[in-house]
Design brief:
Blueprint lengths: L2 E6 L5 H11 L2 E7 L6 H9 L4 E5 L5 H14 L5 E6 L12 H32 L2 E7 L6 H25 L4 E8 L19 H15 L11 E4 L13
Parallel strand pairs: 1-2, 1-4, 2-3, 4-5, 5-6, 6-7
Helix pairs in contact: 1-6, 3-4, 4-5
């Protein structure tokens, strides 16, 4: 399957790795983000592979902004059939759980992360429905294993799990699958101490792992996989998480 893929968010680490892998599978790629600081290398790699790549700035929590961005993608490339949305909780405020100001800031971080995923997926699904085929993949970025990061990432993950399952059920009849990829450390029981993550996930190896799994999920053979959470640990040196076919 080829066509146009949109990678929203994840301007660094995971997003570029996924974008380059999608281009290698024959997709033209559109990068959406609030701002771009290091996209030139990614664009150059994709264009050198013979595929087209555009960058479109959009406020990912704003419905109108994201809708307009998808319109630009459609005009520049075509209507997308694959959407990868990278969700990062962003800077985590300091302070204990009893600190009302810090707690309110954490709520804002969680709300922004969940809303960006919802807005991007809602806009992308509208385009995928025209094809009656498509793939939506939601990716959460690794965070530091500090206590505040843990308290912020857990509600983000829980919200995304519920959204993924609901969207998968709603879109299944239209041939669209929806899946979630998250760091293995985030799957630890929420009662575990925040300073004891299950796996130390490096940003680079995690990004390559996500790229591998994304390449599998967009394949026609993965049509029966939807509504699932897939947890990735860092790959050992020289050992890919999935083998290229």
């Amino acid at each position: 399957m080829t066509g146009v893929a949109v990678v929203a968010g994840g301007g660094e680490h995971t997003g570029p790795a996924v974008a380059v892998r999608l281009a290698g599978r024959g997709f033209d790629v559109a990068l959406l983000d609030t701002e771009f600081t290091a996209a030139d290398k990614t664009v150059r790699q994709i264009e050198e592979s013979g595929r087209r790549c555009v960058t479109v700035e959009a406020e990912l929590t704003d419905t109108r902004s994201v809708g307009a961005a998808f319109g630009q993608v459609r005009s520049a490339l075509s209507s997308p059939v694959v959407l990868v949305t990278c969700v990062g909780p962003g800077p985590v405020p300091d302070g204990s759980p009893e600190d009302e100001l810090a707690d309110e800031q954490r709520y804002g971080v969680v709300r922004r992360a969940l809303r960006s995923a919802f807005v991007c997926c809602q806009a992308g699904a509208g385009h995928l429905l025209h094809h009656r085929w498509g793939r939506i993949i939601i990716v959460t970025e690794p965070v530091d294993a500090g206590g505040n990061a843990w308290r912020t990432s857990q509600p983000v993950l829980a919200g995304l799990i519920g959204f993924t399952r609901s969207a998968a059920l709603e879109l299944a009849r239209s041939g669209i699958t929806v899946n979630l990829i998250a760091p293995a450390e985030s799957a630890v029981d929420s009662r575990a101490p925040a300073h004891q993550p299950a796996v130390n996930v490096g940003a680079g190896s995690y990004a390559e792992g996500v790229a591998h799994v994304t390449a599998f999920l967009i394949d026609d053979q993965a049509v029966g996989i939807t509504g699932q959470e897939i947890y990735l640990a860092a790959a050992q040196a020289g050992v890919p998480l999935l083998r290229e076919r």
